[in-house]
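Late entry, written up from scratch paper. The run itself happened at the end of the previous shift, but nothing got recorded in the book at the time, so transcribing now.
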Amino acid sequence: MKPDQPQFAPPQDAGERKAIAPVICYPVDSLTPAPMALYQAARVGANKVDEVLVPPRDARCFTVPKGHFFRISSVQGSQVGDLNLWNADDLSERFYSGKTRALHGTHLSTGDRLWSSFPAMRPLATIVTDTLDWYGFDDFGGGVHDVIGTRCDPYTGNLLSGGQYHQCCHSNLTRALADHLKVPLAEAEPFVHDVLNIFMCTGFTRDTGQYFMKASPVRPGDYLEFFAEVPLLGGLSACPGGDCSSEHSSDEAACYPLLVEVFAPDPSALEDWSAPAVNGYDKTHGR
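Output as recorded:
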């Protein structure tokens, strides 16, 4: 956060320095775009094969076979969710929110891909439908489905208030993963990682550059749908902040469940599709 009163006077060329045009750090023109027409055609004949209802202020894990679709829906009230994704065959390959943000921007929507951690660094999933794509960015700079926030957690809560709150998304995801893997909490926790904040409306304040949240525009019936590029294990927490209009770790905010549904396409619809290969870097690091 920048100081209200700078200690140093601006130099004579301050205006010129500030007026320098920005340069996109990671131009993505060279990336092969997701085959959206293929995905959309495959989705038409897909059949529902599984569902998981995530209770309010809690989390659940779910699995999605490679080449299947999964949908996360608002079903009862305005509710945001924190999503973790892992390669189901190798949990060390997980969603990399920071690199996804660097490639696609602070907020994701249709056509954007969820990239995995090093050294694989490949798409884990692709967003194929977003019923909130109409929102764009509001006058505050807020948008939906961010890869800015890290997830509400008990450690920051303890740091700021000294409390011991256990229903935050980090703890919810830790319990859910431990239950799914049938391992102790301490073994599961290191796999929990930064999230895609589904349905959450966030941005940065214009004056101080601080991360903010506001009431989510999501309503029952809205959903975000993905195509699984690799076999996936997902973890989804229904945030204890509800729609995050006031606070994101609360026993008082109105909270609602989130529904995860998995859909299997006709195998013939994906005959021309293959899973993305792991990253081609040779890992010699200059040696």
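The first strand starts at residue 47 and ends at 54.
(Scratch paper discarded after transcription.)
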